[in-house]
Amino acid sequence: MKTLRIVALLLPLLGSSPALCAHTTLYDSGVSPAAAADTSLHFGTHLLTTDAAHPTVLGAFGGISFAGGGDALEGDFVQSYDSIAITTDLSDGVANRGDDAFSMLIWDMGAAYDALRLYPRQDHYEGGAITDPNIAQDVMEYSVWGSTDGDSFVLLSDTVAFDVNGAGAGEPSYTFNGVEPTVVYRGGSSEQGLLNAYVREYVFDSAYQYYGIRSSTVSLEAADADPEVDALAAFNMRERCRVSGNDPSCLVPEPAGMTLLLSGLLGVAGLRRR
């Protein structure tokens, strides 16, 4: 009977998506693990406005590309002031090249990946407690978009609200439309420290070769829609779990593993009945 009760508890998990169960974002006061030590990370190539195959159309005030061009994690960054057209795109969750006032910073990851690490490049936050709502929105001024062809993008995650003291005094928590980050490193990166404050990781339902970054809702409402990005690094969730099984995205058994476990338990239950 005890075995049957365990089986009954496991049945609802069989239909769950691999490692994409509902979760609450982990806010880590430290820095993200060193990228050089993580073989699952793959840095993308930022597509500049002059890219012939996939030209990037920037926002109403144009874009700024510094020395790094968004390709490497070195503290330089790409930036765009988003156009007002994002209000429609955020509402319907779709943005296509050729649309009026299309605006997006776009990275080609070289292959399709279902997870992403976003390295912001902070230009106002200098560490410590956040008590100013303007700083609270500024460290989360990013919406994330995915595309399989580099032309048609879908909204994956958008920051829509925040509580300045939601995770403790001076430690804001955030509400997201779409996928919630698995982890947010308030201390930034191992490489650049607070320059990359509020590094965050996501795991998505599908894999994408192209990832786009635009303003988030909270920053659009604050008239501060100018996301700055140091670099994007993508990875596949299963590959990451093989490298580091204690990653926040690796806490739920995959359906195949659950099926094997359930089959074994059913077999045990049958033997006990006989």
Structural class: alpha+beta
Helix and strand succession?
HEEEEEHEEHEEEEEHEHH
Strand content: 25-35%
Distance between the ends: 13 Å
Q: What is the makeup of the main sheet?
A: 13 strands, mixed
Please compute the radius of gyration using only Cα atoms: 20 Å
Number of folding domains? Answer: 1
Oligomeric composition of the shown chains: single chain
Mean residue pLDDT: 80
Count the E strands.
Answer: 13
In DSSP terms (H or I, runs of 4 or more residues), the helix count works out at 6
Level of helix content?
A: 10-25%
Dominant shape: globular
Low-confidence stretches: 2-22, 59-63, 252-261
Mind explaining what this structure looks like?
With 274 residues, the chain is of the alpha+beta class. The protein is built from six helices and 13 strands. The protein has one domain (38-251). It has helices at 2-10, 86-92, 133-138, 217-221, 237-243, 255-273; strands spanning 26-28, 42-43, 45-46, 63-65, 78-80, 94-96, 105-120, 143-147, 152-163, 173-178, 183-185, 199-214, 228-235. Strands 1, 2, 3, 4, 5, 6, 7, 8, 9, 10, 11, 12 and 13 form a 13-stranded mixed beta sheet that branches. α1 (2-10) runs antiparallel to α6 (255-273). The longest helix is centred in the last third of the chain and has 19 residues, at 255-273. The chain is globular, with a radius of gyration of 20 Å.
Nutshell version of this structure?
The protein has helices at residues 2-10, 86-92, 133-138, 217-221, 237-243, 255-273; strands spanning 26-28, 42-43, 45-46, 63-65, 78-80, 94-96, 105-120, 143-147, 152-163, 173-178, 183-185, 199-214, 228-235. By secondary structure, the chain is an alpha+beta fold. Strands 1, 2, 3, 4, 5, 6, 7, 8, 9, 10, 11, 12 and 13 form a 13-stranded mixed sheet that branches.
